[in-house]
Write a structure and sequence with these properties.
This protein has 5 helices and 2 strands, in the order ββααααα. It is mainly α and 110 residues long. Strand 1 (12-14) and strand 2 (20-22) form a beta hairpin. The longest helix has 25 residues, at 68-92. The termini are far apart.
Amino acid sequence: MTLAITAEPVPLKTDINGVVRVGKTRVTLDTVIKTFQNGATAEEIVYRYPSLKLADVYTTISFYLNHQQEVETYLQQRQNQAQIIRTMNQSRFDPQRLRNRLILASLHLI
């Protein structure tokens, strides 16, 4: 019997918003890679995110290790987008103004 060696597809899909997700889950590539970079094993990642399959996590880590520069560029773009959104939200919902409104509202309740 001969062992058939075939290439396994990478379990990464880009959603309509351009976010890369792992397998058929909502877990993002960002999450898996950041958790791996923080020292978690593939088994620990699956334990933390039980919707993931162990084989998909190993394949995702392998993809990252083989395409590190491209993945790091993607992760940086995602961080930049997140910062832009945070800045927009802070300008729309000024925390100090909101805090002042809540204090005033609580004073009127007394």
